[in-house]
Amino acid sequence: DGGITQSPKYLFRKEGQNVTLSCEQNLNHDAMYWYRQDPGQGLRLIYYSQIVNDFQKGDIAEGYSVSREKKESFPLTVTSAQKNPTAFYLCASSMGRRVGETQYFGPGTRLLVL
Amino acid sequence: AQSVTQLDSQVPVFEEAPVELRCNYSSSVSVYLFWYVQYPNQGLQLLLKYLSGSTLVKGINGFEAEFNKSQTSFHLRKPSVHISDTAEYFCAVSPLRDDKIIFGKGTRLHILP
User: Fold this and answer.
1) N or C of chain B: less Cβ packing under 10 Å?
2) What span, in angstroms and rounded, lies between the C-alpha atoms of B74 and A15?
């Protein structure tokens, strides 16, 4: 089955700790995205990547970092600089042809601070 | 810049009644328009989208939406809702020649028995 997987489903972070959220897709999509979802806030774009080894900041990139070493993978690191990391994080992908394509979403990772 | 306004944060409706979820957008350039649905503790999935052509767009699960350029609106409708339609619905826009999508804040649809 083609799709997007995110792991873990729940993640706990201690003060001063960096944590990494995994996102993998087997849809052969060029573009991948990370969103943060807070209650009543909708989805806000953190980072996106349109091609391997290249990525751009979204609207709320501070305190986050990403890498895109492989087409299938786009991990997100929540660093200790992110002071309010508790949220639901969603990864998505699309073909990346800039013609109104559908974004396909993973099931999400819920990050909680201890 | 683009923005999306979903006028209602929550909409209660009785089962088998019709529903309309409102969406207005603002943009200085032409955009594509989307509605996504999110069931509890899941990711989003596409309901329907407008790219061009007929302004009435039909999607999955009996939903449809109408693009109104003069009113910059893209309201979502269903003639008869079911308990399984309980979810959060997001309106979104994407500028032409851009992969990024700008989402509204969502509308929670509550189906009453």
Assistant:
1) C
2) 43
**Structure tokens of A81?**
């600089």
Q: Give me B92's structure tokens.
A: 């979104």
Beta carbons of A107 and B44 less than 8 Å apart: no
B103–A4: do the CB atoms touch at under 8 Å? no
Find, among B55, B37, B54, the residue nearest to B46 by Cα.
B37
CB A111 within 8 A of CB A85: yes
Of B90, B97, B99, the CB nearest to A94: B99
- Selection from A26, A32, A18 nearest residue A91 by Cα: A32
In chain A, pLDDT over 70 holds for what percent of residues? 98
Q: CA-CA distances (angstroms) from residue B59 to A8, A40, A55, A74?
A: 31, 25, 32, 30
Kindly give, in sequence order, each residue whose CB lies less than 8 Å from that of residue B60, ignoring residues fewer than 6 positions away: B46, B47, B48
Determine the Cα–Cα distance for residues B67 and B60; give it in Å rounded to an integer.
17
Mutation target for A interface from B33, B47, B74, B101: give the one with most A CBs within 10 A: B101
B29-83 pLDDT per residue, tens = 889 999 999 998 899 999 999 998 899 999 999 999 999 999 999 999 999 999 9
Burial (Cβ within 10 Å: 0-12, 13-18, ≥19) of residue A91: buried
